[in-house]
Design a protein that fits this description.
single chain; alpha/beta; Alpha/beta knot; 7-stranded parallel beta sheet
Length: 228
C-alpha cells in the first residue's frame, strides 16, 4: 500500500473516530520516538512485563523488542492498562539463539546495543551519549541478562544504588532509566521524533485497533478506492 492509499484509508477510518480521540492520537505521536527502543530478554513475570510496557507508553517509547529464549512473554491486562495496544511489540522466538537474532536486526536498523547491568565496565544514566539510536536491554527478574546478551552488547549502563540489595526490580529499573533518558533526549536538538511516514503507519494502526470491525471497513473502502 503506497502513501497516498494509506492516507486515504486513514482519513476514512478517522471518520469513525471522535475528533477528541483523533487529536489525542496527534498529541501522543508528537512525543513518540524510535531513537530509543527497549529490548526485554526472557521476562517471565506478567506483572513486571506489563509494567515495563506501561512505562514505555508513558515515556514515548514506541517499539519493544521481546526475546523469548526460555520464557514466554505474557501481559497482565490489569497492570498494562491497555498500553500494549499503542506499542509495536516485536517478538524473537523462532531460533535457538534469539538474543543474537534480535541484536543483529537492531544493529541493521542503526541501533547500538546498551545492556543494563551492574556487572560490567558500565556508565551511569546521566553519562550515556544520546547521539545515535540506542537499544536498552533488560533481563530477567532474578538472574538479569544472559551472558550472551551481556558479552555481545556494545555498551553497558547501570543505575546508582546505595543499599544492600544488588539490583532494582526490572520494572523499576526500566522506569528510572526511560524516564531519565526520554526527558534528557527531549531537551536536545537530536532528531528523535518520528518521521511523517512513521506517524502515518502508526496512526493507521491505532485507528484499526480502536474501531470495531475495522478489517471489514478497510476491505470495503479499499475495494471502492481501487475501482475508482
Amino acid at each position: 500500500m503506497d502513501r497516498k492509499e494509506k492516507t486515504a484509508l486513514l482519513d476514512h477510518l478517522l471518520s469513525f473516530i471522535t475528533a477528541k480521540r483523533n487529536a489525542l492520537f496527534d498529541k501522543v505521536l508528537e512525543n513518540r520516538t524510535r531513537h530509543i527502543t527497549v529490548v526485554l530478554e526472557d521476562i517471565y513475570q506478567a506483572q513486571n512485563a506489563s509494567a515495563v510496557l506501561r512505562t514505555c507508553d508513558l515515556t514515548g517509547i514506541q517499539d519493544v523488542h521481546i526475546i523469548e529464549n526460555k520464557n514466554k512473554y505474557d501481559v497482565n491486562p490489569d497492570v498494562a492498562l491497555g498500553s500494549s495496544k499503542w506499542l509495536n511489540l516485536i517478538k524473537y522466538n523462532e531460533h535457538p539463539e534469539n538474543t543474537l537474532v534480535a541484536y543483529e536486526k537492531l544493529r541493521a536498523s542503526g541501533y547500538r546495543i546498551v545492556a543494563t547491568t551492574p556487572h560490567k565496565h558500565e556508565q551511569l544514566v546521566d553519562e550515556i551519549d544520546l547521539d545515535g539510536k540506542m537499544a536498552l536491554v533488560f533481563g530477567t527478574e532474578l538472574k538479569g541478562l544472559s551472558d550472551e546478551a551481556i558479552n555481545q552488547a556494545d555498551e553497558y549502563l547501570r543505575i546508582p544504588m546505595h543499599g544492600f540489595t544488588e539490583s532494582y526490580n526490572i520494572s523499576v529499573s526500566a522506569a528510572l532509566i526511560l524516564y531519565s533518558l526520554a526527558n534528557k533526549l527531549r531537551q536536545t536538538d537530536i532528531g528523535w521524533q518520528l518521521s511523517e511516514d512513521e506517524r502515518l503507519d502508526i496512526k493507521l494502526d491505532w485507528a484499526r485497533r480502536t474501531i470495531s470491525r475495522s478489517d471489514v471497513i478497510e476491505r470495503q473502502f479499499l475495494k471502492t478506492y481501487k475501482s475508482n
